[in-house]
Amino acid sequence: MNILFADTLKRLRTEKGLSQIQLGKQMSVSNSTIARWENGSRLPDFAMLSRLAEVLGVDVNVLLNSAAQSDERPNVIMVDDVKPIVLGALPVLEEVMPNVTVTGFTKAADAIEYAKANRVSLAFLDIELGSTSGLELCRTLLEIHPRTNVVYLTAYKDYALDAWSTGACGFMVKPLTSDGVREQLTKLRYPFPTGGEDK
Predict the structure, then answer these.
(1) Burial class (CB in 10 A: 0-12, 13-18, 19+), 79
(2) What pLDDT score does 3 carry?
(3) What percent of the chain is predicted at pLDDT more than 90?
(4) Quick check: 168 and 188 in contact, CB under 8 A?
(5) Fewest CB within a 10 Å sphere: which of 104, 124, 143, 174?
(6) How many CA atoms within 13 Å lie on the side-chain side of 45?
(7) How far, CA to CA in Å, does 33 sit from each of 12, 39, 54, 60, 181?
């Protein structure tokens, strides 16, 4: 799957104010073809990429570069203001998802900067992050990239109702465990290849 190309195409189409049907008509392809390109299950050939660039009014290299990065490893982040918790979680996440890049953060601001520079497929967020709320961090991450899966990891079950109103797709009570992570992977809103048992 090429999520980077899919997201780039969807963003460019939306910025142009076109629906999938309208883009399909301009490209002389079905809207289901556009849908497959935008869900990452198919890639257009070079001739189609050139036509897409022309219709969308962008340099063809924008589309070529995103299409060429189809084999990049998905990024998963863990954010908790307690460093030992982050350090303890990273090996668990790497074990369950061997084909992803896992990065830990103790500050929400650092996680936001990372998300702006890197497409984050999955974020595990503590809800109480010192002076910052994980709920607010979730909203920010989804503003940066709406297809980021967010799973809350907290010691407090009371947050469950608030958590669901933010667009998250999962909720785990600490401590983070391999079985718990595997269970959450089955519930992701936007699945991605992890190299684990869910692949």
Answers:
(1) buried
(2) 73
(3) 52
(4) no
(5) 143
(6) 2
(7) 16, 10, 18, 19, 33
Structure tokens of 105? 């953060």
The encoded tokens of residue 173 equal 């009570």
Which helix or strand (DSSP H or E) is residue 177 part of? none
Contacts 24+ apart (CB under 8 A), 151-159: 151/122, 151/123, 151/124, 151/125, 151/184, 152/124, 152/125, 152/126, 152/127, 153/78, 153/80, 153/89, 153/124, 153/125, 153/126, 154/126, 154/127, 154/128, 156/127, 156/128, 159/127, 159/135
- For domain 75-185, the CATH class is alpha beta
Residues of the chain with CATH 3.40.50.2300: 75-185
d(CA 53, CA 47): 10
Taking only the tens place, the pLDDT of each residue in 72-82 is 678 999 999 99
Task: Measure the CA–CA gap between 65 and 199, rounded to whole angstroms.
Answer: 25
Query: pTM of the prediction?
Result: 0.64
CATH of 3-68, one of 3.40.50.300, 1.10.260.40, 2.60.120.260, 3.40.30.10: 1.10.260.40
